[in-house]
Specification:
Structural class: alpha+beta
Distance between the termini: 40 Å
Oligomer: single chain
CATH class of one domain: Alpha Beta
Order of helices and strands: EHHHHHHHEEEEEEHHEEEEHHHEEE
Low-confidence stretches: none
Mean pLDDT: 94
Radius of gyration: 19 Å
């Protein structure tokens, strides 16, 4: 390892508590996180401008594109558009620019190809204490690492939840009081279209009260594209819901453990994967994670932390490092690592690369 640029965070990411209507919790997030929201918009603008030769997209053009997607979100999920409007009000930022941040993958039609998130889960049959554990390494541009936060939200019409997010993004990786957890991994279907942005779809999954409702949200009609939604329930049920704009497949963890990275696992979905030969590092991470999970029938938080810290195929490893600074499209790294104990209703979070940053426990009443 020759990465000397890994940031060390002595403190955990900030935790904020929000409560009320969707508009109110958005406004409270915006007020509490104003510098982070402003920074994420500036980062998105710089990314679009720095990749003009590749994307042929200006910042004004990105806003025009975002305006095409948001009416679909407004029609199906007005409550989450309300959250974005509230966040824009609370942070005193332009709503359309915030919409670009939340629709960046759609606006750039996935030309960014940031392909390094890792998600995994084990149920009670594969843990030492009979708990259900779900874990995720969020790999994104290092510019957004300072903007990571944890939010505990209580809305008027959904189960309370505890989730990770950063900047002005709607939260989606976390778990709720109904015992449902979600991790999201970007995948690359060839059937993308103008529709509901993936971040909005995944925010809806976090609000589900049952596994079936979570699935329904993941495959909502008129979606723009799709993530892999690793969806886990406190009962030990584990699923990968692989989604594109027009197709989906559900993969079940028959053996009590599950992993996913950034390529489709379902043969049905592989048929519509865009440029699958480019997705090599994601396959290495998936197979490595699957091996490490399957070798242990007595997993603990520590053993899962060890998997999230793994450096096989460094720097494009499960614990991903940004060591190439020349290409703005090849700078992603692990900006936050987390493990959710659904049985204990706890989350432990390492801010930044987990090989250099310790895990901090977040324990809130849900």
């Amino acid at each position: 390892m020759n990465d000397t640029s890994t940031i060390v965070h002595p403190a955990p990411p900030p935790l904020i508590h929000v409560k009320g209507s969707h508009r109110e919790i958005g406004r409270q997030m915006g007020e509490a996180l104003r510098p982070l929201v402003e920074h994420s918009i500036e980062n998105a603008r710089k990314l679009v401008e720095s990749t003009y030769d590749n994307l042929q997209l200006t910042w004004d053009g990105a806003q025009i594109q975002a305006r095409k997607y948001m009416p679909f979100a407004q029609e199906r999920y007005p409550q989450y558009v309300e959250e974005l409007l509230g966040m824009a009000e609370g942070a005193n930022v332009n709503y359309t620019e915030l919409a670009v941040v939340n629709g960046l993958e759609a606006v750039t039609t996935d030309a960014l190809h940031l392909t390094k998130c890792t998600s995994l889960a084990v149920n009670e049959n594969n843990t030492a204490d009979g708990h259900v554990l779900v874990a995720h390494n969020e790999d994104w541009l290092p510019d957004d690492e300072p903007d990571v936060f944890i939010v505990h939200a209580e809305t008027d019409d959904e189960p309370p939840f505890l989730a990770m997010s950063y900047g002005g993004l709607l939260p989606n990786v976390g778990f709720n009081a109904a015992g449902i957890a979600q991790c999201c991994d970007t995948v690359y279907p060839s059937d993308t279209r103008i529709g509901i942005p993936r971040v909005v779809v995944s925010r809806a999954v976090l609000g589900a009260k049952t596994i079936g409702k979570a699935f329904r949200h993941a495959v909502v009609p008129l979606r723009a594209a799709g993530y892999n939604h690793l969806i886990a329930h406190e009962s030990g049920e584990l699923y990968n819901v692989e989604v594109s704009a027009r197709n989906f497949d559900i993969l079940y963890a028959d053996d009590g453990y599950l992993a996913h990275t950034n390529h489709y696992l379902s043969p049905k979905m592989q048929e519509i994967e865009s440029e699958s030969d480019e997705l090599i590092h994601t396959r290495v991470r998936y197979l490595r994670a699957k091996r490490l999970l399957s070798q242990n029938k007595k997993h603990t938080l520590k053993s899962i932390e060890g998997i999230l810290q793994d450096h096989v195929n460094y720097p494009d490893s499960i614990c991903n490092h940004s060591v190439f600074d020349l290409d703005p499209l090849d700078r992603e790294k692990t900006i936050v690592s987390l493990i959710m104990d659904l049985t204990a209703r706890q989350m432990v979070v390492a801010w930044g690369n987990p090989c250099k940053n310790g895990y901090h426990k977040f324990n809130v009443e849900l």
